[in-house]
Design brief:
The chain has 13 helices and eight strands. The chain is an alpha+beta fold and 305 residues long. It folds into two domains: 158 residues, DD-peptidase/beta-lactamase superfamily (Beta-lactamase, 3-Layer(aba) Sandwich); 132 residues, DD-peptidase/beta-lactamase superfamily (Beta-lactamase), CATH 3.40.710.10. Strand 6 and strand 7 form a beta hairpin. The longest helix has 16 residues. Bound molecules: glutamic acid.
């Protein structure tokens, strides 16, 4: 299997690179706007400890919303079920940065992966901690899960988003007006922008994702129940309003980021990180989604059989 998979990944890299349509990079964060969309990397961490890679698997990229998975893991570890008093567990069917439902649903975001929900998670991370301590907690989790201390924040990306992050600022103030943000909105957005600006390669991300896949690399980091719940949320909400389409095409829990990263989980089997910075209309990696679809087809790893 491993040998076949290794060859498949090399072929996949070649096929994806032959693509004519890479999608568009996210330019609302100016620092990400200049990145060449025609790039691709993939890393697959298997249950037996092997790591297979192809393309630019060692190239660091801005993980953006993929960080929401790990921030959620930290907060669930800290306060557990209480989080659900402040955030829902339903797909939103709206864009990642939408404010629409927040008014109708009185400031309780639909799920922890849309921006409004992620801001509440970051607010929880900040409870009793400074922004620096909260960020250290997420980075510490990632470093332990990946077994790699060389994971850092790209400050230029964080500052670039902060200078243009009016929508997230609006969401934070709106949440605060409903009493669902305890810390000052600019503390929360500032911490959130830095969390999103964590840089990792596919190799590091696939290794960190093993804890979400239940591969027992660091068994004390995340309980079985929390791991299962995070996977359920990734399946139903991980690609924003494109989550149904992703489940249909790939059939695996995953989380996307506007930096073009994708963490895909084959529970109990593998943690897969894919990067290609060109995005589709939902803000998810275009070539990355195609690669995940082909990989799921090849391996038969879809949770739907
Ligand atoms: N930092 C980005 C934002 O809040 C993350 C969005 C994403 O990666 O989907 O707009």
């Amino acid at each position: 299997m491993t040998q076949h998979l290794g060859r498949f990944l090399d072929d996949l890299d070649r096929d994806i690179r032959a693509s004519a349509d890479w999608g568009k990079v996210a330019d609302y964060i100016p620092e990400l706007g200049g990145i060449d969309p025609a790039q691709f990397g993939i890393a697959v961490a298997l249950a037996d400890g092997q790591l297979l890679t192809a393309g630019q698997a060692g190239q660091p990229f801005s993980i953006q919303s993929v960080s929401k998975v790990f921030a959620l893991a930290c907060v669930l570890g800290r306060i557990g079920e209480q989080l659900w008093l402040r955030v829902g567990r339903e797909p939103s069917g709206d864009r990642f940065d939408s404010i629409l439902l927040l008014e109708q649903e009185k400031g309780r975001p639909r799920n922890p992966f849309i921006n409004a929900g992620a801001l509440v998670v970051t607010d929880e991370l900040l409870t009793g901690r400074s922004p620096k301590q909260a960020l250290s907690e997420v980075i510490g989790f990632l470093r332990t899960a990946a077994g790699d201390d060389d994971i850092h924040i790209d400050k230029a990306v964080a500052e670039s988003e902060a200078a243009h992050g009016h929508r997230n600022a609006a969401l934070a103030h709106y949440l605060r007006s409903f009493g669902n943000l305890r810390n000052p909105p600019d503390h929360v957005t500032g911490t959130y922008f830095h969390q999103c600006a964590i840089e990792m390669s596919c190799i590091q991300l696939a290794r960190a994702g093993r804890v979400i896949a239940g591969l027992d690399c660091a068994p004390n980091l995340l309980s079985r129940v929390k791991q299962r719940r995070i996977n359920a949320l990734m399946m139903t909400c991980g690609q924003y309003d494109g989550s149904g389409n992703f489940a249909f095409r790939v059939g695996l829990p995953a989380k996307s980021g506007v930096g073009g990263g994708l963490l895909v989980i084959a529970p109990g089997r593998a943690s897969i990180a894919i990067w290609s910075p060109g995005l589709d209309g939902w803000g998810n990696s275009q070539a990355g989604t195609l690669a995940a679809e082909k990989l799921a087809e090849f391996t038969g790893w879809s949770v739907f059989g």
